[in-house]
Write a structure and sequence with these properties.
The complex is a heterodimer of chains A (about 350) and B (about 525). Chain A is an alpha/beta fold and about 350 residues long. Chain A contains eight helices and 16 strands. In chain A, the strands form four sheets. In chain A, strands 1-2-4-3 form a four-stranded mixed sheet, covered by helices on one side. A four-stranded mixed sheet of chain A has the order 5-6-8-7, covered by helices on one side. A four-stranded mixed sheet of chain A has the order 9-14-16-15, with helices on one face. In chain A, strand 10, helix 5 and strand 11 form a beta-alpha-beta unit. Chain A starts with a strand and ends with a strand. Chain B is an alpha/beta fold. Chain B is elongated, with a radius of gyration of 36 Å. The chains are: A alpha/beta (about 350), B alpha/beta (about 525).
Chain lengths: ~350, ~525
């Protein structure tokens, strides 16, 4: 008889994160899972299309047996099989985030029997999801430092709501090694880019102007990146900090009804909070690092803040792997998170 | 939302609403595209009807939907309409589409998108969904309150099956319950058969103008029910005229036709003035002809014409007059037998025998005595202007008698009502006590005494003159009553139960049929002989 690991989807952050982390770990550990109350406290509960795509992608990669994997299901059982590398293509509806699906399947494909190449179509720069460039510049370099062999290539931007973006990822199986990140290290480079498709270029100018004034950056650090109209409409302001130990990236998304100044100010605020903390990583990168560190067995880093997402991830990891994850508040107000 | 069936949307391209040049189209609400952008909904297939000239727009929609909804297959369906505002043309085109479409309702749910297309298209979609040419739900989409990027608007599914809407169904049910309550006028009947009859009469009364035939013994409530049907139809504005009630047994001779159909001045001796007649009085109202079996042959013929043609000749008249009335006929006789015996016209019977209901006698629905007792007592209380109640024991005693075989209720509800009225009138201080009930029970006993003429011949044919003269009057009176009860009963057991009801109640006897058989045998009689001597009715 199959023994399931039972999870309550309404705990912690209570949204799609539990589901994605659980799917990743289920595939990596071969543990059958049952999740109840999926997104139970959300306005429209149950699996939405973007979650369903993640479930189906995970199922495809490991030949899982699914129950309840339907739109609106609040229960799901997932019995994983062996992970199979190879070529995959996932198309995500509603301009849903490609990066979230990629993150769900990446840990498993690192443990596959052969290299994989996956093509993802949908949104590449969505609010409420890490943008493509965050993966490329911030997350994957750290993963590579842990021994992973992963490369990404962006073919087209996909903004919400039109979607139509695409990127490919090449993944070679590898064993992850522990990682320790205490300091961000010396800043090597810093720049802000405003990507703009099918929108007045003035939007981008105004955003960069805010960055210039509030961060005191010079003109060469402010990059206006016009995109072809067919990749829009959309706008994303990306602020990248290249440092010796870590590259961090913060984002603001242009939105109808929100001024360019407000979009930029929000992104700048994130940058300043991160810089002020003196920690190695920001809150989003902290989220992303927990799972690879746990799979590696051990590791630690300092983070500017601990989010609800991080705590939820930590709890799900503990349920699967038994790995303890401790957080301690430092004198500076930042936290040290230790895994294992 | 959890649907195992695939969702197929059928709809027209919105040449205005779905259009949009440049990338700005993603910032406006496009009903057809919006449907496929919902996080909580997967449209598996989209049948996109369009005029040939809108092909470029359709191609753009196919591409856009492919981008935001890889799960959706879009099928462009070209429909050439010269004028999308021409009702006949649009209906014809959609009818052809619907009748030729391979609907598979086992595997797919169909949603008919009515937000796009002309108003004529909308009307045609509605008509075809209602007629079930399109086995699906109507789908209405609406824009978001604020047109904002990523706001995909709302959608509502409309099922034209009204019974699926609780509030509407509840209103219908309440209306019907009101109508039934009106028919019963507040009498809570516990008799299933009677309940079914009333429910059906309600339906028929509301939907049909055809004649209704009420059969049942006198006092079973035929007239009462006819009046209620009238009130119901009047409340529903199906009748404007009056309620006219006639007992045909009271119409005799020349006067009968004249009373019913009217006469012209000088039509016969004594016809000094014109008379309209009851049928004309009932114009646009309801005519209740009680005891229709008593009508003479001429009147039957005239009535048939009046029912069929809504026209008839008054007596002595050479010009037809019109009257539109709803007919309810009542009878206590078996009209079928009257037809067989040639006493009643077969064609008239056929005409009024469409909706025939038999009202059971009170003895056949003893469970209704109690609710009717309460109802009638309340009614009498109102009439008398004071509240009358039973003492607990008196009520138990009266009900016990009223539902026992000893109570014949030969006048049915009329008897029950009169009985309660007597007690209510005599009740001192508004209380009906034991004494009053006892007196009433013996009064009813006297009332239901067989008439003397029938008593005299009860034993004729059963016993010879010699045998009769050999009986003491004491025995003869008893035997006569026993034989009468036997003849009123269908079986020996039923007669036994009625005759030995008191013993039965005391459980001092358990085989009353046997007891009766032995009693009859003392006079050389048995069940078969008594039955064979039953007077023909």
């Amino acid at each position: 008889m199959t023994t399931f690991l039972e999870l309550d989807g309404s705990e912690g952050e209570g949204g799609g994160q539990i589901l994605r982390t659980a799917l990743s770990l289920s595939m990596c550990t071969g543990t059958p899972i049952r999740i109840a109350n999926i997104r139970a406290r959300r306005k429209v509960p149950g699996l939405m299309r973007q979650h369903l795509t993640a479930v189906q992608a995970a199922a495809e990669i490991c030949g899982a047996e699914l129950e309840g994997g339907r739109l609106g299901s609040t229960r799901l059982s997932f019995v994983p099989g062996p992970i199979r590398g190879g070529d995959y293509r996932f198309a995500i509806g509603t301009a849903g985030s490609c990066t979230l699906v990629f993150q769900t399947v990446l840990p498993a494909l690192l443990r596959a029997d052969e290299p994989s190449r996956i093509r993802l179509q949908g949104g590449t720069h969505n609010p409420l999801a890490p943008p493509y460039h965050f993966l490329e510049r911030a997350f994957l370099p750290l993963l590579r430092r842990m021994g992973a062999v992963v490369s990404l290539e962006l073919q087209r931007f996909g903004f919400y709501p039109a979607g139509g973006g695409e990127f490919t990822a090449s993944i070679t199986p590898a064993t992850l090694a522990p990682l320790t990140l205490d300091q961000p290290g010396t800043r090597l480079n810093a720049y802000a880019e405003s990507f703009c498709a099918a929108l007045p270029i003035a939007v981008a100018r105004r955003e960069l102007d805010v960055v210039r004034k509030r961060l005191g950056w010079d003109e060469p650090q402010l990059l206006l990146r016009g995109l072809s109209n067919d990749q829009g409409p959309g706008n994303a302001l990306l602020i990248t900090l290249e440092q010796e130990a870590v590259t961090e990236l913060f984002t603001g998304f242009g939105e109808k009804g929100v001024t360019a100044e407000a979009v930029a100010a929000h992104a700048v605020d994130q940058v300043r909070q991160y810089l002020a903390s003196g920690a190695a990583v920001g809150p989003y990168l902290a989220d992303q690092l927990l799972l690879p560190l746990a799979l590696a067995g051990t590791g630690s880093f300092t983070a500017s803040a601990v989010t609800r997402h991080s705590l939820t991830n930590a709890e799900v990891i503990r349920r699967f792997l038994g790995t303890p994850i401790r957080t301690e508040t430092l004198d500076s107000g930042a936290c040290r998170i230790s895994v294992g | 939302m959890t649907s195992i069936k695939k969702i197929v949307v059928i709809g027209f391209v919105g040449s205005q609403l779905d259009s949009g040049k440049g990338m700005g189209r993603w910032e406006k609400w496009r009903p057809t595209v919006g449907l496929t952008q919902r996080e909580d909904l997967v449209i598996h297939r989209l049948e996109l009807l369009h005029a040939p000239r809108h092909r470029p727009l359709v191609d753009q929609l196919v591409a856009d939907i492919g981008q935001v909804s890889p799960e959706t297959r879009v099928n462009p369906v070209s429909i050439d309409l010269a004028d999308p505002w021409d009702f006949g043309e649009v209906y014809g085109a959609l009818y052809d589409f619907a009748t030729g479409y391979p609907f598979d309702t086992e595997k797919e749910d169909y949603w008919i998108h009515i937000t796009t297309g002309t108003h004529v298209v909308q009307i045609c979609w509605f008509l075809m969904a209602e007629a079930r040419y399109l086995p699906g739900l109507l789908l209405q989409t609406s824009p978001p309150r604020r047109q904002k990027t990523g706001e995909v608007g709302d959608y509502v599914l409309i099922d034209l099956d009204l019974s699926k809407y609780d509030p509407i169904a509840r209103r219908f049910a309440r209306e019907q319950a009101d109508a039934i309550a009106l028919l019963k006028s507040g009498i809570a009947t516990r008799n299933d058969h009677f309940n079914r009859v009333i429910t059906e009469i309600e339906t028929v009364a509301v939907r049909s103008r055809a004649p209704i035939l009420l059969m049942g013994p006198t006092g079973a409530g035929k007239s009462f029910l006819a009046k209620r049907v009238y009130e119901l139809k009047k409340a529903r504005r199906q009748l404007e005229g009056p309620f006219v009630e006639v007992n045909c047994a009271t119409l005799r001779g020349d006067g009968a036709a004249s009373a019913l159909f009217g006469h012209t001045k000088g039509a016969f001796t004594g016809a000094v003035a014109e008379r309209g007649g009851l049928l004309r009085s009932a114009d646009r109202g309801l005519l209740f002809l009680d005891e229709i079996g008593e009508l003479g042959a001429d009147e039957q013929a005239m009535l048939l014409k009046a029912i069929e043609e809504k026209k008839f000749f008054p007596v002595g008249g050479d010009r037809e007059v019109e009257s539109h009335f709803q007919l309810i006929a009542g009878t206590h006789r078996d009209l079928r037998r009257d037809v067989a015996a040639g006493r009643f016209r077969e064609d008239l019977f056929a005409r009024i025998n469409l909706w025939t209901y038999e009202l059971p006698s009170l003895t056949r629905r003893p469970e209704d005595i109690e609710p009717n007792l309460d109802y009638l007592l309340a009614q009498h209380s109102t009439e008398l202007g004071r509240m009358v109640r039973f003492n607990k024991e008196a009520r138990r005693r009266y009900l016990g008698f009223a539902t026992s075989p000893a109570a014949r209720w030969s006048g049915n509800f009329r008897d029950l009502s009169a009985s309660l009225l007597r007690m209510a009138t005599l009740a001192d201080g508004g209380r009906i006590d034991d004494d009053l009930v006892n007196a009433e029970i013996s009064r009813l006993g006297t009332l239901w005494q067989p008439e003397p003429t029938t008593t005299e011949c009860t034993l004729d044919g059963l016993l010879t003159e010699a045998e009769l003269s050999g009986l003491d009057l004491f025995d003869r009176l008893q035997l006569e009553s026993v034989v009468r009860i036997c003849r009123e009963s269908r079986t020996l057991s039923e007669a036994g139960r009625r005759l030995f009801a008191a013993s039965l109640a005391n459980r001092s006897s358990n085989n009353d049929a046997d007891r009766l058989r032995k009693y009859l045998a003392r006079f050389g009689l048995d069940w078969g002989r008594i039955n064979a001597s039953r007077p023909k009715t």
